[in-house]
Design a protein that fits this description.
Helices cover 79% and strands 0% of the residues. By secondary structure, it is an all-alpha fold. The mean pLDDT is 86.
Length: 363
């Protein structure tokens, strides 16, 4: 029963925060992340611990997490459906360069920081080796929060522009590479190279299946919707089954469900088929399910744990290295490929979208 009250509180807080932060030029997704911090132990749990414990007991977190994942999977599927292949074909080299620069520079900076602090048992467990700490910090600092990046691009009306497509393509490449690194980290921690092999190899095979086979198999369904002018419920259910299977598979091989959802969306027919999916799924996904995803991170964030000058200094160094390293590297790569100064600055800023992905790596 408490779940419904949680949803009501989350949605109301997100709307109020959205109204406030819209006056500061911030997108709704930023307001939703801040709403999570306000509802979590950093503020509500500090001001009114009894209210916080009643609203969000630890036993309820798995239910909320499952809803978060459903909203995220549906949203990333819709982003894949809206992804414009024609725009990215001419900018594939730019996207790859921006992504590579945005991975390498913050990864190196994160690795250097981890190398210096790896021996501190308050930051890493005793069993963590220096190389494992380097790989973990490098992956955490180089990854872009692809769901947050996509939400900002869609909210700002950039999804079908050259800039938005370049950022989405670079962000997707960035995250796939970072999750491959995470697979290496997991393999290192568990001393099992099969983990990395299954994740990287399985992800590549699934991408090829979606783009080369599934896309062609679904073309007749696209023509059927075009001729009928609408998508019937049976076809919608069939698409949702494909989506859930794709999300399950990539989650199972430890690349994370969002990539299965995104790749399944890429395989969908365009035109009326894509428009019908958007009409059926987008409103409820963005209005009800997705805010839970962005709030959930705040519910698990306790800023008060950073309670010494040394920790605040380290947090500042990590933040500076992550944001400046990625921003400058992506800006330089975009300029190298002929983007204007303004677009290169925008690319550097967009690629610095951060959020729950780092927390997922941490967990």
């Amino acid at each position: 029963v408490l779940f419904f009250l949680q949803l009501a509180v989350i949605l109301a807080t997100c709307r109020v925060c959205g109204w406030v932060f819209r006056h500061f030029g911030q997108p709704q997704v930023v307001a939703e992340m801040i709403a999570g911090v306000l509802l979590g132990p950093s503020l509500l749990g500090w001001l009114a611990p009894g209210v916080s414990a009643y609203l969000f007991p630890s036993e309820s977190k798995p239910i909320l997490f499952a809803v978060c994942q459903l909203g995220l999977v549906l949203y990333m599927f819709l982003i894949g459906v809206e992804f414009d292949f024609e725009l990215i074909r001419s900018r594939l080299r730019s996207a790859a360069s921006v992504s590579l620069a945005g991975i390498v520079v913050p990864f190196v900076l994160g690795g250097l920081i981890a190398w210096q602090v790896a021996g501190d048992t308050t930051l890493f467990p005793d069993k963590t080796t220096r190389m494992q700490a380097v790989l973990f910090m490098g992956a955490a600092m180089s990854i872009t929060a692809f769901p947050m990046l996509a939400r900002i691009i869609f909210e700002q009306g950039l999804s079908r522009t050259s800039l938005g497509t370049l950022a989405l393509a670079a962000g997707s490449i960035d995250d796939v590479a970072a999750w491959c690194v995470l697979a290496l980290v997991l393999a290192s921690f568990q001393a099992d190279p099969r983990i990395a092999l299954v994740a990287i190899g399985g992800g590549l095979l699934f991408a090829l299946f979606c783009l080369l086979m599934l896309r062609r198999l679904l073309l007749p369904l696209g023509r059927r919707v075009e001729s009928a002018g609408a998508m019937d419920q049976g076809l919608l259910v069939f698409v949702l089954i494909l989506l859930m299977l794709g999300a399950w598979f990539t989650d199972r091989i430890q690349i994370y469900a969002v990539f299965g959802a995104f790749l399944t969306g890429l395989a969908m027919p365009r035109g009326k088929f894509a428009a019908e999916l958007h009409r059926h799924l987008y409103p409820l996904t963005t209005a009800l399910l997705l805010p839970c995803f962005f709030v959930y991170s705040g519910l698990n964030t306790a800023i008060g744990l950073v309670d010494t000058p040394a920790l605040w200094l380290l947090a500042g160094v990590v933040l500076l290295a992550a944001t400046v390293g990625k921003g400058v590297a992506c800006y330089a790569a975009a300029r190298w490929h002929g983007e204007s100064h303004r677009e290169a600055v925008a690319i550097g800023a967009l690629m610095n979208a951060r959020g729950l992905m780092e927390l997922i790596i941490l967990n």
